[in-house]
Design goal:
The complex is a heterodimer of chains A (496) and B (175). Chain A is mainly α and 496 residues long. Chain A has 19 helices and no strands. Chain B has eight helices and four strands, in the order αββαααββαααα. The chains are: A mainly alpha (496), B mainly alpha (175). The interface between A and B is large, with 99 and 84 residues.
């Protein structure tokens, strides 16, 4: 089997690509309306929603960027994972029930639809849509770049494609992605998520086992090798330090409930009561899949320090290198296929929410009451968005993980207070929502574009998130009207 | 406690977090505060002298995270209808907070002890402080998951809610 390693891995990926095309075509036959295209007609069962939620979280960012971060910064990035259990619980307590209720009451198909109904404000709808488009660009570029990095790594091992460029890989990746998304919409995405989620859970455990076998002394030896080089790298705050880690924990823990690609999936389930099953399945699935993030990054760092592997050209190479060299060919093939699945379905989810923001929410914010040919426009805009994101992926010299972190932080800071707190507090006002979104976008954009650094690794996203919560609640207290101004159905939904 | 009072508490916690971040930002920045380039491998970073960079901000960072955990629990209370927040709910929520806070505190103390002594044991593949991080902090969140799953009908969505919601949907046809 080892003699055919590259062939087995490539075959697995090709079979998966064909599967994606088939799912796209199948889903196209089930997609008859914008509601089908964007939120799967609110018809999904609990297992499908659970797998879709957690596998969207661990996308190309989790599979490629995560191990890369552990390789380059040690344990620091564990803080992006370990508060996820708490963060998911918070998201379900605050968002899952109410977003699903408003979606049904108002026939909402997007997050801006929900906040526009909650705040009776087209300005909030527009700002929410703008946030989504900006965040989607960063995150979508991450997905495409991750897919291209992995494809280049895979094809580079063959004689025929040994010199294939990253640009060619971006083009091929984007082409498959566009076909899959345009034909299938969100239905294709969630059903791929089911396969992907299952693969990720199994792969997480198998990869952990593989990683423990690389050193004779198991995982303990790997961490000891790292510790002898730099003890901080395997101590709880890694090389990035305590404040940077707490920032990541805050953004990735609390911020889960501000991720549009996740909370939109909370609108898709058949019954609200299903959330009782969705939460634990999502949390467990995430925990198993995250083992891949932790184990590959740690072992790759140890291997390079110990001289058993050449230094990687970049941290993003950690996962492809480990899978290509250390995992059994069949496992590597399955994980690579799962990796493509992760990237495809997450990219699809982002294209989906981004497209909804552009063709559904922004026109509505400017007064459009009826949007003609919405499904056709959705498919066209999906192509345009993918091309723009692919271009960003090519011209940006930022790592997969960092692009993903910026996208996640943008969403968390701008969306969490407005959605998670706002859906549960009648006293939240549209002025509070506007100030929170504008302040968080301003801080994120200005600090990242101008590359302004803060002491002790305080990131722009961290600062923006803490600030936006304070401003949202504070401004809402200052601008509260004396009587309830919300629509009766929304008021009553908030009393459940 | 009504929703506005809970939001006031969330605001106060948020303001205290801002204050702590401002105090941290005003401290003299050390060269290795957020890591240094690895001397041998260009794609890696190192932490360097852990005690030098950690001790000046140790207390501020500890209390910042305690505020975050308390804020999370307040937000969870916000997500439950006020008349459903029974004494049992508050006991369970407080116990869940206790679990999160205990895991955080024990990890912190283990790390501080390592910085003082330079010695640590290996536990299930990790140095002792990191084992607290990987196993205890991650698992401590399951208290809140349990509260959601086992208290679902009491605190989140009862059978009666389902029928009332269907009535509401019929009363207000989607627009």
């Amino acid at each position: 089997m080892e003699a055919f390693r590259q062939e087995i891995i490539l075959s697995s990926v090709v079979i998966y690509m064909v599967f994606c095309v088939a799912v796209g075509l199948w889903a196209m036959r089930r997609t008859h309306s914008p509601s089908d295209f964007f939120i799967a007609g609110r018809s999904l069962g609990p297992l499908v929603v659970a797998l879709a939620i957690f596998s969207s979280t661990l996308s190309g960012f989790g599979f490629v960027g995560g191990p890369g971060l552990v390789y380059s910064q040690g344990v620091s990035s564990f803080w992006m994972i370990i508060l996820s259990t708490t963060g998911y619980a918070l998201g379900f307590f605050l968002v899952a029930k109410r977003i699903r209720m408003i979606a049904e009451l108002r026939d909402a198909i997007s997050l801006p639809d929900v906040v526009a109904a909650r705040y009776k404000s087209e300005a909030v709808r527009f700002l929410m849509a703008l946030t989504i488009v900006l965040g989607v660009m960063g995150y979508l570029a991450t997905q495409i770049l991750a897919m291209a990095v992995v494809m280049k790594s895979l094809l580079g091992g063959t004689v025929m494609f040994a010199d294939i460029s990253l640009i060619s890989c971006v083009v091929v990746s984007s082409a498959v992605l566009i076909f899959y998304c345009v034909t299938g919409g969100i239905i294709a995405s969630v059903y791929t998520d089911v396969v992907q989620g299952a693969i990720m859970m199994v792969a997480g455990v198998l990869i952990l086992y593989t990683a423990t076998q690389v050193f004779d002394g198991g995982f303990t030896e790997a961490t000891q090798v790292i510790m002898q080089d730099d003890a901080e790298a395997v101590m709880p705050f890694g090389t990035a330090g305590v404040i940077a880690c707490l920032g990541w924990a805050f953004i990735f823990g609390v911020g889960v409930a501000g991720q549009p690609h996740l909370v939109t999936k909370m609108m898709m389930n058949r019954k609200i009561a299903d959330n009782r099953i969705v939460l634990p399945v999502s949390v467990m699935g995430y925990a198993f899949a995250a083992l891949l993030w932790i184990s590959i990054g740690t072992v790759m760092r140890a291997l390079v320090i110990d001289g058993q592997a050449e230094p990687l050209t970049g941290p993003d190479q950690a996962a492809p290198f480990f899978l290509s060299v250390f995992a059994s060919p069949l496992l590597a093939g399955v994980v690579f296929a799962g990796l493509f699945a992760a990237i495809m379905s997450t990219a699809d989810a982002f294209l989906n929410v981004g497209t909804a923001a552009l063709i559904h929410d922004m026109p509505k914010a400017f007064g459009a009451t009826e949007i003609k040919n919405e499904l056709l426009k959705a498919r066209i805009v999906t192509v345009v968005l993918a091309v723009v994101a692919a271009t960003i992926a090519l011209v940006s010299d930022t790592l997969v993980a960092l692009l993903g972190t910026i996208g996640w932080a943008t969403f968390a800071a701008a969306i969490f207070p407005v959605l998670a707190i706002g859906l549960n507090w009648k006293g939240a006002t549209h002025q509070g929502a506007i100030v929170a979104i504008v302040s968080s976008l301003s801080i994120n954009v200005v600090f990242n574009v101008a590359s302004i650094g803060l002491p002790y690794g305080i990131s722009a996203g961290f600062l923006a998130f803490v600030t936006s919560i304070v401003l949202f609640v504070g401004v809402s207290f200052l601008t509260q009207p004396k009587i309830d101004t919300l629509d009766e159905d929304i008021l009553r939904a908030m009393e459940f | 406690m009504n929703q506005s009072r809970l939001c006031l508490v969330i605001l106060i916690f948020g303001l205290l977090q801002c204050l702590l971040l401002a105090l941290i930002a005003m401290m003299p920045a050390l060269e290795n505060a957020s890591g240094l380039a690895h001397p041998l491998f260009s794609s890696m970073r190192i932490g360097g002298d852990g005690a030098a960079r950690f001790m000046p901000v140790a207390n501020l960072a500890y209390w910042f995270q305690m505020l975050v955990l308390a804020q999370i629990c307040c937000m969870i209370a916000l997500g439950v209808r006020p008349d459903r927040r029974s004494n049992l709910f508050w006991v369970l929520l407080t116990a869940s907070f206790g679990l999160l806070a205990a895991a955080w505190t024990l990890m912190y103390q283990a790390y501080e002890a390592f910085l003082v002594t330079g010695q640590t044991e290996m536990v299930a593949g990790w140095p002792y402080p990191t084992a607290w991080q990987v196993y205890a902090i991650w698992l401590s969140g399951f208290g809140l998951v349990g509260l959601y799953v086992f208290g679902f009908k009491a605190y989140v969505w009862s059978d009666d809610d389902e029928s009332k919601f269907q009535a509401l949907v019929k009363q207000y046809p989607a627009r």
